[in-house]
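Lab notebook, bench 4. Continuing the backlog of folding jobs that were queued last week. Each job is logged with the same field layout so the records can be merged later without manual cleanup. Today's entry covers Serine hydrolase domain-containing protein, a 402-residue chain. Filled in by technician R.K.

JOB TYPE: sequence-to-structure
TARGET: Serine hydrolase domain-containing protein
LENGTH: 402
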Amino acid sequence: MTVPSDVPSDAPSHVQGHCDPAFAGVREVFERNFAEERELGAAVAVYAGDRKVVDLWGGIADRRTGRPWLADTPCFGFSCTKAVTAAAALLLAERGAYEVDGPVTGWWPEFGAAGKEGTTAAHLLSHQAGLPAFARPVSAEEAADAPARAAELAAQEPEWTPGEGHGYHALTYGWLAGEIVRRLSGRTVGAFVRDEFARGLDLWIGAPDDVIERAAKMSASRRATSGGGTDAPRPADDASLLDRLASAYTDPQSRLNRALNNPHPGKGGYNNPVVLRAGWPGAGMIATARSFAGFYRDLVAGRILRPDTLREAIRPRVSGPDRTMLIDSAFGLGFMRPAQTFFVPAAGRGTAFGHTGAGGSIGLGDPDAGLAVAYLPNLMGDHLSGDLRAYRLVEAAYAALS
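JOB STATUS: finished
OUTPUT FIELD FOLLOWS
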């Protein structure tokens, strides 16, 4: 990922916004992240039921210009996008457009090529399709053509038999799950989301130029290391596993590297307007934290999907060793469930769902607790599934509920 790497030591935190006194612990964690120089700019929002109890932001939105993070500054969410794409696809299933456990070839005949005729929509949504990476290098410009990328994946031979294992489809997920939306609604994922459940939200998958202009610019941390960083929740107390993760992350031939870095975002990395305009359905969302938390608020409240649809969507479909990530992961239909790739405090491990993003971001919902949390930073760690900044915020939110 290509992003600016120099972070000024005098970057102001100036945390602003609203925090209910009962959730003061969230503000304390957020301010501490800035005080410990773990942030450049960031925003966090929490809903308890329909009540917005935390709406905080601070720091710098653009390191190069010193532009401050404002109340309406949106930020790139990386793979947090997948939860929004999944909700769109599941809404179409709820309306009877297709059967989640039915064959993909019923509505996408070409997908049956190269031994994939037994693939179901559930396989696409739960990272079981065997297509975690494109077989050739794909540019950012090519990635903007969603129908062409979907057709390319439909013709591609799977790396394992669909349904016989799972492995994180870091970017290809978007053109697989997104094709459900495109074919069965006639709209892009971004257009469908805006039309159906994000009209009142500052949330885009495929942002207009004025939004791109005021969005936070992503920056890499000077403290990042190839081994995961000292502040990251460790996947295991296994030094050999950590070594293998570091090796796979830098090996251009590894499945992990191929899945994470192809398509390549091009010049400017994930600040590249070509990427932000295209709205990759697997990693292309721009949103404010309050609107992203609002998405989870509405999801938990049954305003996007029926409660029974959501319960079925967050039921773990796969768990255990991930063929891409090399550590344990767990997925429902597009949503992460608590595992080594989705660290959740003990209070939420039975009922929390959501998705992390590569830069440290997270979106989380918990229907039993009535909780919705979103955190979007622009200072990236190098952690595959968030880091302690997000975990500590979520932990403080659960602590406030108890």
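OBSERVATION: The first strand starts at residue 16 and ends at 19.
SIGNED: R.K.
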